[in-house]
Amino acid sequence: MFLPKYPDNPTPPPAHAHTPTDPALVRRSLSSISIDQKTVAAVLVGGVVLTALLAAVAVTAISVAIAAVVLRSLLREHNRR
Q: DSSP for 26-81?
């Protein structure tokens, strides 16, 4: 009942026989994709700088939160006296 039904004469998929009409067009389009080393270096430096800024913001937020908890504790004890 739930068995798949296979065709009697399976036909192979058609082969992809696309050949470029002008090889110069293919070479020209690939050369436009080339990436300069300066671009790669700029992207890497930008990523490092953004990561460092994110880490600095995270450390600052944590230190401010700790300072707020300490000040709150000190003020609470001061008000009890």
A: HHHHHHTT---HHHHHHHHHHHHHHHHHHHHHHHHHHHHHHHHHHHHHHHHHHHH-
Residue type, 29: S
Those residues with Cβ within 8 angstroms of residue 20's Cβ, 6 or more apart along the chain or in another chain: 26
Q: Which residues of the chain have pLDDT under 70?
A: 1, 10, 12-14, 16-34, 81
HSE-up of residue 80 (Cα within 13 Å, Cβ side)? 6
- The residue assigned the tokens 């490092």 is 48
Q: What percent of the chain has pLDDT over 70?
A: 68
pLDDT of the residue at 5: 79
Between CA 27 and CA 22 the distance in angstroms is 9
Instruction: Tell me the C-alpha distance between 59 and 66, whole Å.
Output: 11
